[in-house]
C-alpha cells in the first residue's frame, strides 16, 4: 500500500510539472485529491486493514495528501504569476518614451476673423452688441421700414419658422440696430456680428453665413464719417494701406440714400490685372463688393423714438465670409462649414 501511495504521489507531482493551465491542475486535483479521487479510495480501503496497518498507512496517506495539496496550490500560484508576467510583457510601459502630443484645436477661421473685426472697430470706439439668431418679423422687417407685402421682402429668401407665428431665422444683422436703439439713447456707436440665414446655396452664397452690422447715430454724423470709417476698416482688415473704397447707389428700405460698398481688390490693388494677367478675383474690374450701407432712414429713427431732425446716422452690413474668402484666397464658401480638418488646420 505504501508503494501505491508513493506511486500516486509521483504521478501527481510529474503531472503538475507539465500542467500548463489552471484547468489541467483543477482536473488533477479532483482526480487525485477530490472526494471521489484516488487518495480517498486509499482511505476507504483502510477499513479492511489491521489496526497497525490502519495507523501507519493512514498517517502516510494523510501526510502525502497534505504534501500534494500544497504542491497543487503552489502550481496554481506559479501559473498565475506566469500569466501576470505575460501581461506585463505585452503591456510593457516604457516611461522614458516621449509622450504622444494631444491634438490641440484652435478657433475657427471665421471666429478669429470676428475677433479681428471687433478689435479694429473697438479701437475706433465701437462697442459690440448682440441680437437673437431667431428673430421676429417685427424686428427683421417691419421696424426696418419693410412692411408686409413690400417688394423689398423678396430681396431676401427667408426661412420662416414653422409653428412660431411671424418668426424667421434672421436674414440680416440689421434688426440688432433697432433692438439697440430701442434700449439706448444716442449717441450710438456699435457693431454686431453673427449668423444670418437665407435660402441661397452656391460657391459664394451659403444658407448660413455671417454678417457684420455697423451703426453710428448722433448729431452731425455724415456719409463722410461712414466713408472714413469703412476705408480705415478695409485697410486694417486686409492689412493694406493702399485700399480705397467707393460707394455705388443702391436700395435698402432702412437707409436713405442706400449704397453698395466696394473696396479695391487687395490682390491686383485695383489694377484689374497682375503683370498683364487678368485678375480672377475681381474679374478685372479692380473692385470687390463688400456689403451694403447708407444713412439711417428717418423712419427707422422715429420707429425707435429718436428725433430724426436732431440725429442722423449711418449703418452698414458686410458679408464676413466673403471677406475671409478674399483675404485668404478661398474659392468656395462651403469649405468653412464642412469641418474638414485638412482645410481648418491651415489657418
Ligand atoms: C443686407 O443684408 C443689409 N442688411 C446690409 C445693410 C446694412 C445695408 C445696413 C444698409 C445698411 P445684402 O443683402 O446685400 O444686405 O447682404 C450684405 C452682404 O451679405 C452681401 O454683400 C454679401 O457679402 C453677404 N451675403 C448675402 N447673402 C449671402 C449668402 N447667402 N452667403 C454669403 N454671404 C452673403
Structure report:
The protein is of the alpha+beta class and 347 residues long. It has two domains: 89 residues; 236 residues, 2-Layer Sandwich (BirA Bifunctional Protein, domain 2). It is 41% helix and 20% strand. The protein is built from twelve helices and twelve strands. The strands form three sheets. It has a seven-stranded mixed sheet with strand order 1-5-6-12-11-8-7, with helices on both faces. A hairpin with a 2-residue loop joins strand 9 and strand 10. Helix 1 runs parallel beside helix 4. It is rod-shaped and about 135 Å long. The termini are far apart. The structure holds adenosine-5'-[phenylalaninyl-phosphate]. Adenosine-5'-[phenylalaninyl-phosphate] binds next to strand 6, strand 11, strand 12 and helix 10.
Radius of gyration, in angstroms, nearest whole number: 43 Å
Main sheet makeup: 7 strands, mixed
- Percent helix range: 40-55%
Describe the strand arrangement of the main beta sheet, using strand numbers: 1-5-6-12-11-8-7
**CATH fold field value of the largest domain:** BirA Bifunctional Protein, domain 2
CATH class of the largest domain: Alpha Beta
Q: CATH architecture of the largest domain, please?
A: 2-Layer Sandwich
Q: Report the mean per-residue pLDDT as an integer.
A: 91
Name the helix and strand elements from N-terminus to C-terminus, one letter apiece: HHHHHEEHEEHEEHEEEEEHEHHH
- CA-based shape: rod-shaped
Percent strand equals: 15-25%
Instruction: Determine the CATH superfamily of the largest domain.
Output: Bira Bifunctional Protein, Domain 2
Number of strands: 12
Spatial separation of the terminal alpha carbons: 89 Å
Poorly predicted runs of 5 or more residues: none
Could you tell me which ligands this complex binds, including any ions or cofactors?
Answer: adenosine-5'-[phenylalaninyl-phosphate]
Question: Helical region count?
Answer: 12
Number of domains: 2
The class by helix and strand makeup works out as alpha+beta
Amino acid at each position: 500500500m505504501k508503494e501505491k501511495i508513493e506511486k500516486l504521489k509521483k504521478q501527481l507531482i510529474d503531472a503538475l510539472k507539465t500542467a500548463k493551465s489552471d484547468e489541467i491542475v483543477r482536473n488533477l486535483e479532483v482526480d487525485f485529491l477530490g472526494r471521489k479521487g484516488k487518495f480517498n479510495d486509499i482511505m476507504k480501503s483502510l477499513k479492511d486493514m489491521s489496526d497497525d496497518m490502519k495507523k501507519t498507512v493512514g498517517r502516510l496517506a494523510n501526510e502525502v495528501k497534505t504534501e500534494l495539496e500544497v504542491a497543487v496550490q503552489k502550481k496554481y500560484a506559479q501559473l498565475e504569476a506566469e500569466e501576470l508576467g505575460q501581461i506585463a510583457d505585452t503591456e510593457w510601459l516604457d516611461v522614458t518614451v516621449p509622450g504622444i502630443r494631444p491634438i490641440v484645436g484652435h478657433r475657427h477661421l471665421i471666429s478669429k476673423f470676428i475677433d479681428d473685426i471687433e478689435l479694429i472697430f473697438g479701437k475706433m470706439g465701437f462697442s459690440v452688441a448682440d441680437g437673437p439668431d431667431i428673430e421676429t418679423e417685427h424686428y427683421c422687417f417691419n421696424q426696418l421700414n419693410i412692411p408686409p407685402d413690400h417688394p423689398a421682402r423678396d430681396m431676401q429668401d427667408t426661412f420662416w419658422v414653422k409653428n412660431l407665428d411671424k418668426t424667421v431665422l434672421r436674414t440680416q444683422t440689421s434688426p440688432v440696430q433697432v433692438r439697440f436703439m430701442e434700449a439706448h439713447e444716442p449717441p450710438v456707436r456699435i457693431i454686431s456680428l453673427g449668423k444670418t440665414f437665407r435660402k441661397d446655396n452656391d460657391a459664394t452664397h451659403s444658407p448660413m453665413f455671417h454678417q457684420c452690422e455697423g451703426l453710428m447715430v448722433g448729431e452731425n454724423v455724415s456719409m463722410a464719417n461712414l466713408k472714413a470709417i469703412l476705408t480705415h476698416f478695409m485697410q486694417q482688415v486686409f492689412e493694406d494701406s493702399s485700399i480705397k473704397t467707393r460707394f455705388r447707389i443702391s436700395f435698402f428700405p432702412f437707409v436713405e440714400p442706400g449704397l453698395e460698398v466696394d473696396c479695391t481688390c487687395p490682390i491686383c490693388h485695383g489694377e484689374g490685372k497682375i503683370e498683364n494677367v487678368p485678375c480672377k478675383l475681381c474679374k478685372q474690374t479692380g473692385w470687390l463688393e463688400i456689403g451694403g450701407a447708407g444713412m439711417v432712414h428717418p423712419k427707422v429713427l422715429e420707429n425707435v423714438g429718436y428725433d430724426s431732425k436732431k440725429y442722423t446716422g449711418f449703418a452698414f452690413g458686410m458679408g464676413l465670409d466673403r471677406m475671409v474668402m478674399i483675404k485668404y484666397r478661398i474659392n468656395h464658401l462651403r469649405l468653412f462649414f464642412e469641418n474638414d480638418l485638412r482645410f481648418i488646420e491651415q489657418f
